[in-house]
Amino acid sequence: MEPEFWHRKWERNEIAFHQAETNPLLLRHVSALGLAAGARVFVPLCGKSRDLHWLLAQGHEVVGAELSRLAVEQLFAELALPPRITHEGTLKRFEAERLTVFVGDIFDLDHATLGHVDAVYDRAALVALPEAVRTRYAAHLAAASRHAPQLLITLDYDPSLAIGPPFAVNEHEVRRLYGAAYHVAGIETRALTQGLKGVHPVRESAFLLTAR
Ligand SMILES: C[S@@+](CC[C@H](N)C(=O)[O-])C[C@H]1O[C@@H](n2cnc3c(N)ncnc32)[C@H](O)[C@@H]1O
């Protein structure tokens, strides 16, 4: 996807991926990450997800990466947190209290800029990227986070039924992308009653990735 694709989505408010509530798989399985109080959690391609609100409410420090400045402005406004904005190379850093979001291309965010993170939470990030980009993304995320444990939430459906994003990512692909560097454990798979794009059968899965 070109950056323009996502900028247009946010400008037109075509954000069906945005959930009104915290993701149930995050609620059910965050404990698998073994986070200590105040742990620093990285949320790639974070949008303005309610999951960020929830992680902050648990007392965690949250670091996001998001292409759309509009999304990030909305996120800070919805949290009633006026951000300090500074430059970090090609990225902008929005910061307030325990929330930091790097605005720009995640591939420009390296470990030195991101800093130490205790865990990664990926919901609708890997599946937002086309196949050719997913291999690069998985390697980049592993390097930037120094293989921090990851709670990964994917979607899987018959790819002949719809064109992504979101793209179908099955367990086989998760293992291909992450299996060399991480132990991959499937934790839960559930059918989403609302269906993909409101019609097609779709399953949502949670995986726990821990460094080998
Ligand atoms: C499907 S949305 C998911 C947002 C969020 N994770 C959620 O659950 O609501 C994917 C997000 O990734 C952002 N994005 C796409 N490509 C990106 C990139 N290369 N770097 C940073 N963010 C990107 C988009 O702007 C969009 O907000």
TrEMBL record:
Catalysed reaction, written as an equation: S-adenosyl-L-methionine + a thiopurine = S-adenosyl-L-homocysteine + a thiopurine S-methylether
Broad class of the protein's primary localization: cytoplasm
Biological process per Gene Ontology, one example term: methylation
One Pfam family of this chain: TPMT
InterPro entries: SAM-dependent_MTases_sf, Thiopur_S-MeTfrase_Se/Te_detox, Thiopurine_S-MeTrfase, TPMT
Its EC number(s): 2.1.1.67
Annotated binding of S-adenosyl-L-methionine, by residue: W10, L45, E66, R123
Similarity section: Belongs to the class I-like SAM-binding methyltransferase superfamily. TPMT family.
PANTHER family xref list: THIOPURINE S-METHYLTRANSFERASE
Protein name per UniProt: Thiopurine S-methyltransferase
Lineage: Bacteria, Pseudomonadati, Pseudomonadota, Alphaproteobacteria, Hyphomicrobiales
Record gene name: tpm
